[in-house]
Amino acid sequence: MTATITRSDRGPVRILTITNPAKRNAFSADMAPMLRDMLLAADRDPTVRCIVVTGSRDVFSSGHDLQDVLENPETAGDPEANAAFTLPAELGTPVIGAVNGAAYAAGFILALNCDIRIAGDNARFCAVGARIGLVPVGGQLSRLLDLVGYPVAFAMLTTANPVDALTARKTGFVHEICDPADTLDQALALADEISEVSPAVVRAIKTGLRTTLQHGLRAGAALEPALAQTVRDLPDGDEGVRSFLEKRPPRYPDAPADLQDRLDKAGVQ
User: Fold this and answer.
1) What is the distance, to the nearest Å, from the Cα of residue 162 to the centroid of all Cα atoms in its chain?
2) Cα 74 to Cα 263: distance, rounded to the nearest angstrom
3) pLDDT of 81 higher than 80
4) Please, which contacts does 225-229 make with residues 24 or more away whose CB atoms are closer than 8 Å?
5) Residue 248, by phi and psi: left (phi above 0), alpha (psi -120 to 50) or beta?
6) Nearest CA to 10 among 67, 48, 55, 62?
7) Who wins on pLDDT, 55 or 76?
8) pLDDT at position 104
9) Domain residue ranges of the chain, discontinuous segments joined by +
10) Quick one: CATH architecture of 198-266?
11) What is the dihedral angle through the alpha carbons of 160, 165, 169, 173, rounded to the nearest 10 degrees?
12) Tell me, which fold does domain 4-195 have in CATH?
C-alpha cells in the first residue's frame, strides 16, 4: 500500500487518515507536507466544521520514518519539516485526534497539537527525543505543560517511556478512552456535536483560548470583547435565539471565508 494521507468527508467533518501500515504509519517522504497542505485546505473550506486525524488499522503514527531521518538528519528539528505536526493548534477549525494505537515521536507531537484526543485503550504516547538524542520540539516543551503540568511533562520527556491510555486519561492528556475499534466513531460523534453549534463561535473560542495560552490571561481577557463584537455582526446570534424560542435545533450558516482573518485582527489595535 502506498504511503499517503487519505481524505474522506462525513457531512461537515473532514477525516484525514495517516496510511503507511508497512512502517506503522510512519511519515515517509512527502507525507508530512501532504498532511500540512490537507489541513490548510480543510481550514480554508468554510463547509468543514471539524477535522479528525487518525491512523490506518491499529496504529496512529510511529513518527518520522527513521530511515529518512538517517539519510536527512537535518529534518529532525527543522520547523518546516515538522510544520504539519504543530499546525492543528494554529488552525481556526477544531482538530480531534482519534488515536487508535501508538502515537510516538512526530505522531505524539501531532496528537499533542490536536485540540482534543479520543484514544483507544490500546493507545500509547511516547516522546522519544531524550532516548534518541534529540531535543523534544513541536510543543513538547511548551504546549504539553498546559495539558498535564510540569511533573508529568518532565517525566514523560526525560524518561522517554510510553504512557498508556489510562494514565494519559488520568493526567488530562486524553479526553476519552474507548475500545480501539470504536476510536474513530467516538471521535466522529464528538466532531458531530461540535459541528452542530455555531462555527463562527467555535473559531472565536479557539482563537481566544490560543491567545490566552500563548500570551497569558490578561491578553485573553482583553481579546474577549473584540471577538464577541466580531461574531455579533454575524447572523449566528439571531439564529441561536430564534431556534431556542421556536424549540427547534439551530441551523447555523457556515462561517464566512474571511472570518479567521477578522478574528486574528480583532485584538490588534
Assistant:
1) 20
2) 35
3) no
4) 226/266, 226/267, 227/263, 227/266, 227/267, 228/204, 229/266
5) beta
6) 48
7) 55
8) 97
9) 4-195, 198-266
10) Orthogonal Bundle (1.10)
11) 50
12) 2-enoyl-CoA Hydratase; Chain A, domain 1 (3.90.226)
Residue 205 neighbours by CB under 8 Å, 6+ apart: none
Indicate the residue type of 138: G
Phi, psi of 16 (to 5 degrees): -115, 125
pLDDT above 50 for 269: no
Place of cell 503514527: 61
DSSP the chain: ---EEEEEEETTEEEEEEE-GGGTT-B-TTHHHHHHHHHHHHHH-TT--EEEEEESTT-SB--B-HHHHHH-GGGGG-TTTTHHHHGGGG-SS-EEEEE-SEEETHHHHHHHHSSEEEEETT-EEE--GGGGT----TTTTTHHHHHH-HHHHHHHHHH---EEHHHHHHHTS-SEEE-GGGHHHHHHHHHHHHHHS-HHHHHHHHHHHHHHHHH-HHHHHHHHHHHHHHHHTSTHHHHHHHHHHTTS---PPPPPTTHHHHHHHHT--
pTM across the whole model:
0.94
